Amino acid sequence: MVQAVAAGVEAKATKIDPMLVPGVIGAELARHTSAMDSVLNAFRRTRSITRSQMGTLRTATAGIQRIGMYSQQLSRLAGGRLRQSHERVSLDELMRRALADNDWRYYEGGLQIEHHLQPVEVILDPSLLVTLLEVAVDCAARYGQVINLLLKIKNWPEHGLLTLKSRPHVATTQPAQGEQEEYLEWIMLLHLAQAMGVIVEREMYADHVLITIEFPRTVKKLEGLTAVEIDGGGDSSLMSESRPLAGHRVLLIAGDDKLRWDVRSVCEDMRLVLDVTPSCAQAIRYCELDKPHMIIIDERIRDEQFDMLREDLLRYDVNFPCIEIASKPNVVEVASWEGDRMSRISRDALRTQLSSIMAMELAKVF
User: Fold this and answer.
1) What pTM did the predictor assign?
2) In whole angstroms, what is the distance from residue 305 CA to residue 296 CA?
């Protein structure tokens, strides 16, 4: 769906009508098969094939293969069959790698790509992220051969922002808004973005097209440590008045008095209810009587009993939140959304970082 926007911008789009997808795929296939038919007809007449015609066949074959790959991925995305393994990755490094891996393809396509990439780290599935970046470049290439990439962190909220500005080598007139053709790459980009929780927008100007991709799960630097930006909207709005944290029950397994005091102080500020047990055996009995919403454990007393308890809890709730307090300094590790590892935080970071980690963990289940 394309809608008109402010002056200076011809069109702006962020959604696609699902009914358009089969037609777009059919049009893409027809374009490539038509090119192949043209070469085959020429071959029947001349019984020879030129280098240019061979290039046309290679381009058409690669295009059909890409359509098949995109169609399969779109089917999996629509059916929710993609299992994501969220990890902390360097977005700028992955962008450089994607450009390098496709350098020859971009060269054959006549693309001129310039980039300025600032260091940005995000929490996403690495393989899906690479696909997203490659599809974004392919999408931009549909609108011009000169592509400028810029990766930076927005001032507020502190989200990674990738912009792709595309323009032709020679200035041309863009199609009228009603005649604007949708491309399979754009459809694929939107579906990937929705599955990954990133924000994509396309703005069409008279002389160029601007595609922006915003990454809410951006890692930011805080006092020498790292933490993930908790978005104020959507499902992460646990700190808002509509979905408060107040009243959720946290079980702390620790025997250290100072550690207990630090965690209790954070829980009081967040209006959470904290219960404490000094051992994993007592924690098991506690959970048998009343299951908490979250468990925090001192790594020094973690044992096989706790691992068995956590395994039982995960059997009923695959996202049950657990946080491990590490003795090693300068540790803030955010567990993946679908992984089996626990989030970890060092004792010296409890007062500054624990509340953010707890909000993120509770966001998995509330």
Assistant:
1) 0.53
2) 15
Distance from C-alpha of 283 to C-alpha of 302, rounded to nearest angstrom: 11
pLDDT recorded at residue 204: 87
Query: Could you tell me which of 197, 198, 195 has the C-alpha nearest to residue 82?
Result: 195
**Among 305, 277, 297, 309, which Cα is nearest to 347's?**
297
How many whole angstroms separate alpha carbon 149 and alpha carbon 141? Answer: 12
Cα separation, 73 vs 222, whole angstroms: 37
Q: How far is CA 292 from CA 301, 309, 339, 354, 364, in A?
A: 19, 12, 21, 18, 15
Nearest to 128 by CA among 337, 366, 316: 337
- Select from 124, 66, 58 the least CA-distant residue to 95: 124
Q: How far is CA 127 from CA 47, 189, 323, in A?
A: 44, 14, 26
Are the C-beta atoms of 245 and 271 separated by less than 8 Å? yes
Q: What's phi and psi for 183, nearest 5 deg?
A: -115, 155
Angle at 225 between CA 221 and CA 230, to 5 degrees: 55
Q: Is-contact 68 86, C-beta < 8 A?
A: no
Residue 60 pLDDT: 73
- Helix spans in the chain (H): 21-46, 51-79, 91-101, 103-108, 126-141, 184-196, 257-269, 280-289, 304-316, 350-363
pLDDT at 170: 61
Task: Please tell me the predicted confidence (pLDDT) of residue 147.
Answer: 94
pLDDT at 337: 56
What residues does 8 pair with on adjacent strands?
none
pLDDT along the chain (366 residues), means of 10: 35 52 64 78 82 77 70 63 75 94 86 92 89 92 92 85 86 45 78 86 89 87 44 38 63 92 90 91 88 93 93 81 90 69 88 86 71
| Interacting residues of 272 by C-beta distance below 8 A, sequence separation 6+ | 245, 246, 247, 248, 249, 250, 358
Q: Does residue 225 sit in helix, strand or coil?
A: strand
User: Which residue's structure tokens are 């999408």?
Assistant: 139
CATH numbers and ranges of domains, the chain: 11-218 (3.30.565.10), 227-363 (3.40.50.2300)
Question: CB under 8 Å to 76, separation ≥6 — which residues?
Answer: 82
